[in-house]
Amino acid sequence: MTISEDPADLDRSDPEGEIGSRAEAYRNWGRWGEDDVLGTLNLITPEKRIQAAGLVREGRVISLAQAFDTNGPQKGWRRRTNPVHTMTDTGTDAERANQGFPHGMGGADDVISMPLQCSTQWDGLGHIFDHGLAWNGRRAGEVVTSEGDLVTGIEHAADALVSRGVLLDVGRFREPTSGELPDGYAITVADLEGCIAAQGPSSVVGAGDIVLVRTGQYGRARRDGWGDYAGGPAPGLSLTTAGWLRRTDIAAIATDTWGFEVRPNEFDVPAFQPLHQVVIPNIGLTIGEMWDLEELGEACAASGRYDMLLAAPPLPITGAVGSPINPVALL
To answer: Where is this region: Disordered (predicted)?
Structure first.
């Protein structure tokens, strides 16, 4: 069965059917064996990393993380709060010599409390299920329990997420004046392929690449205020891009939005993050969200070069289904 990649062809009254047809058509279960824990990250080979290392020409490093502090976008949905940073030892304590150290020694210590997916982060393979099934067809309850993700915990990806990164600046491509897509804009396959053609050979996407999609929403939120950035209307990928995400064999994808896919979702009946439901548990694709792609977008536009060495390893938090990160692009 041919599945349309035109959003106009979606049956907006049938999210179950539209999700199900794509899940079945693009499923990668068993592709890397029944014991696989990495999904599409298997596509990042040593040869791909050697290729990516050759892209470093200026020695310039750009962090793609937003600040981890209380000035963040979260509003408490599903207990997601912004990071809370607390000092447990300070310079004041040292001045008062009440820390118990000998010979004038003093120091500072601190602690941070935060949900793992409240800021720049990866969604791990245990984050989303499809009808009670996790990545590779495993029962969700046998994968993630109160003890964490016992099978595909984010720690397995700790040394995997270094590869060729490719920026697709769809914001600048579609809106050259503002560089920002409007909230609710559904990015199509035609948009992605048109952006690649416009940007040139350095943005051609291949197997094992990590694709970064800039919509411009993050920059708008930092300029105008967070507003409903966390969970509200946003530009993002259409459900109809699922086939492109599968056939390009990319290793991972990240956006500068809270939820990766277009919001509101593309249905007239209740639906929630349908593209997540296809790509994480069925394709095995790792997804990044809330990345700051503003400086990188400016750098790539100035140089005309859109690929780079990208290093974005998660924290090896045992059993976690996601991780905060400080991804860096090396140009």
So the answer is: 1-21
Which among 294, 228, 230 is positioned nearest to 258, based on CA atoms? 230
Rounded Cα distance between 310 and 61, Å, is 10
**pLDDT tens across 82-94, in order?**
999 999 999 999 9
* pTM for the predicted model, two decimal places: 0.96
Report all structural domains of the chain as residue ranges with CATH numbers, in order of start: 7-74+117-330 (3.50.30.50), 81-113 (no CATH)
Structural element, H or E, at residue 244: helix 242-247
Residue range 214-262, pLDDT digits in tens: 999 999 999 999 999 999 999 999 999 999 999 999 999 999 999 999 9
